[in-house]
Design brief:
The chain has four helices and no strands. The chain is mainly alpha-helical. Among the domains are: 35 residues; 57 residues, no CATH class. It is flat. The mean pLDDT is 74. This is Cytochrome oxidase subunit I profile domain-containing protein.
């Protein structure tokens, strides 16, 4: 049997599989075109980025250092006052806003433990009192 067939005999039952694999190979070949275009555009000339965070919405400290980064990213340890230090650095008006009032009852019920939810209480067999009643 030869290694490659351009066409299979209909009685072999491979015609559909051959057509599916041909369409798949064409799809793979076409999908490499955007990749090659991206390589060409990138290699044509480097675009220099002169700002720390070109989009302005980076949250972590990696967006707060210079690009390209120096040998030691920071000369001193930065002060972190929120979960989004770089975003707060680029948008001080948002960082200065007061946080919304939190529902203390909800937080207390979530973080207080399972006994405040009315389940998993230990009941003393002799007295009938729960551990929450003590």
């Amino acid at each position: 049997m030869p290694r490659r067939y351009p066409n299979y005999m209909p009685e072999d039952g491979f015609t559909l599989y051959n057509q599916i694999s041909t369409v798949g190979s064409v799809l793979v070949a076409v999908s490499t075109l955007p990749f090659l275009w991206n390589v060409y555009v990138t290699m044509r000339g480097p675009r220099t980025v002169f700002v720390d965070d070109p989009w302005g919405f980076g949250n972590s400290l990696e967006w707060a250092t210079a690009s390209p980064f120096p040998r030691h990213n920071f000369t001193s340890l930065p002060r972190i006052r929120s979960e989004r230090p770089a975003f707060d650095l680029h948008h001080p008006e948002v960082a200065a806003m007061d946080p919304p009032e939190r529902n203390r009852d909800l937080l207390d019920s979530l973080y207080a433990g399972p006994e405040t939810h009315g389940r998993d209480r230990l009941i003393d067999q002799r007295t009938g009192r729960t551990d929450h009643d003590r």
